[in-house]
Amino acid sequence: MSPARTVLDAIGRTALVTLRRVVPPRCARIVVKVEGQNPTGSMKDRVALAMIAGAERDGHLSTGGTVVEYTGGSTGASLALVAGARGYRMRIVSSPVFSEDKLTQMAALGAELTLVPSADGRITRALITEMIARARAMSEEPGTHWTDQLHNRHSIAGYHPMGEEIWEQTAGRVDAFVQSVGTSASLQGASEALRRHASALRVVAVEPAESAVLSGGAPGAHLIEGIGIGYAPPLWRPDAVDEVMAVPTADAQAMARRLAREEGLFAGTSSGANVIAAIRLGLTLGPDATVATLLVDSGLKYLSTEVYRRADAATAA
């Protein structure tokens, strides 16, 4: 392998791993894309590069410009990485409700943070709405481009390569794709690419059980970072999915810990939710099928949270 020309050339081409110990008998083969192998430890490196490159092509960003975004952390770290590599200033609106590890990483990569408190210490629609309003106000300053991830269609195309990678790595043997919904871009982008090869592909969306709005429920507070914004995201297309599954925060956290201990795969809470949903589907499809899902980021982003705090781990043991 030749060396990458820049850090941006190291984005993508992550490993696909078959789960062994957390998958019950008579379940489909469950394969997971290990997106923590990207430079910032998240699949969001893919979308950050797509959004900034798209803004450059569209003439919205030029030398010395500023990028602004609202984010729970992973997208912010990815945007900070890409902005730094491209020579842009990065301003992020986030909240203390999100992992301290993510906030620290964003700042370390050069992002200037504006933090919005959450009334109850959880992720709610009101919090997301306030973060968006702050980002919108910042975007009105001269020389500033708001990537606006919830509306940015460049983000969908940014995940097409992920779908192609899954198809190649499974040698064309994939029957279903499962992914949790934040902006909906990764679900749509990867499944669009996969369906070019397999039109019968089953696509399942995942959301927090405490805020199961895509399933027709009421918005609520939860602690699965990166997903479940409390309303259907603007990019969401219900006709693009076959089913929506709701997973409780506690179950997603428990599966994230199991993945680390039993599979050696260190990931975050939304990844735990993905695996739970993939197993549910896999038990329906049976052992001859293959279900692909994502480990969207590294567990290193959650060391300060209740998912991996040492006291919690000791109690669980």
Report on the structure:
The protein is an alpha/beta fold. It folds into two domains: 7-37 and 162-316, Rossmann fold (3-Layer(aba) Sandwich), CATH 3.40.50; 44-146, Rossmann fold. 37% of the residues lie in helices and 16% in strands. The protein contains ten helices and ten strands. It has helices at residues 44-57, 74-86, 100-108, 125-139, 154-158, 160-169, 185-197, 249-263, 269-285, 310-316, and strands at 16-18, 29-34, 66-70, 89-94, 112-115, 144-146, 176-180, 202-208, 243-247, 290-295. It has a six-stranded mixed β-sheet, with helices on both faces. Helix 2 (74-86) runs parallel beside helix 3 (100-108). The longest helix has 17 residues, at 269-285. The termini are far apart.
CATH topology of the largest domain: Rossmann fold
Shape: globular
Q: What is the residue-averaged pLDDT?
A: 94
**CATH level 1 class label of the largest domain:** Alpha Beta
Major sheet details: 6 strands, mixed
Q: Report the structural category.
A: alpha/beta
Give the second-level CATH assignment, the architecture of the largest domain: 3-Layer(aba) Sandwich
Read across the widest sheet, the strand sequence of neighbours is 1-2-10-7-8-9
Strand content: 15-25%
Number of discrete domains: 2
**Portion in helices:** 25-40%
User: Low-confidence segments, ≥5 residues, pLDDT <50?
Assistant: 311-317
Total strands: the figure is 10
CA(first)-CA(last) distance: 41 Å
**C-alpha Rg (nearest Å):** 18 Å
Order of helices and strands: EEHEHEHEHEHHEHEEHHEH
**Total of DSSP H or I helical runs spanning 4+ residues:** 10
